[in-house]
Amino acid sequence: MSNIIKTNKRGNLIVISGPSGAGKDSIVERLLKINRDTCLSISATTRSPRGQEKDGVDYYFLSREEFEKRIKENEFLEYAEYNGNYYGTPKSGITDKLNSGKDVLLVIEIQGALKVKELIKEAIFIFILPPSMAELRRRLVDRKTEDKEKIINRFKTAYREINEVTKYNYVVINDDLEDAVAKTNSILLSEKCRVDRIEEVYLANEEEELHELLIDKEFDNSDLKI
Ligand code: 5GP
Questions:
Q1: What is the pTM of this model?
Q2: Which end of the chain is more exposed for a tag (fewer CB within 10 A), N or C?
């Protein structure tokens, strides 16, 4: 709160991308816990649930027919085909969340992120990188949730994706998870301090009067040594 300026209280749309295995989901999971002004947009996908994933929590798992029906009904802010499956961001709820002051996180791949960039100029784009390709390969293999062919596909896709990093506003290297979370959170906090969020400055013409009033309250003349 400030009685000097009025700032835009709307949340920011934050797009987070990076290759599979870079650690986007772990960063976002921690971020949601430490920054209560953030919330996650749950995507829809046609891929099958992996491991412990739950419908409506990790994704809305849809059939291809249902997904295509929703595309026709214009229900997605963006969608893309990625490694043979559809992924899309449902429009519903995003505007309300932003208006309530929450930053909305979209954890999406690059084709979708670039569509959001065309549609929403003020969105903020963060790219998460692994420290090295060898570390990325190790993380993909260690997940043990997919077969060899799928892992190789994800690894190939990662090479292509990393070349797109300069289309984003920020890059965070996920070497140490806590450090990467702190950096990502700092980006979110800094974006809230941008001067282009100022809507009004309240300082009026009574400046002189204000100066005297403020100083009279605090100033005790008795100790003054001239
Ligand atoms: P995964 O199958 O590993 O959960 O996700 C594969 C890729 O799809 C990841 O890069 C993930 O960020 C991305 N993704 C998840 N949801 C969406 C979405 O709604 N739209 C787009 N374009 N990509 C998404």
A1: 0.91
A2: C
- Strand duo 76-82 + 124-129: pairing: unpaired
98 CB-contact burial (10 Å; exposed 0-12 / middle 13-18 / buried 19+)? middle
What distance in Å separates the CA atoms of residue 136 and residue 10, rounded to the nearest whole number?
Answer: 36
Residue 128: beta bridge partners?
172
CA atoms within 13 A on the CB side of 187: 24
| C-alpha 22 chain-centroid distance | 15
What number is the average pLDDT over the span 114-122?
A: 96
Q: Which atom of ligand 1 is nearest to the CA of 89?
A: 19
Which tokens hold the place of 95?
């505007």
Q: Which of 13, 75, 85, 108 is the best mutation target for the ligand 1 pocket, counting ligand atoms within 8 Å of the beta carbon and taking the most?
A: 108
Ligand 1 neighbourhood includes 43 CB (under 6 angstroms): yes
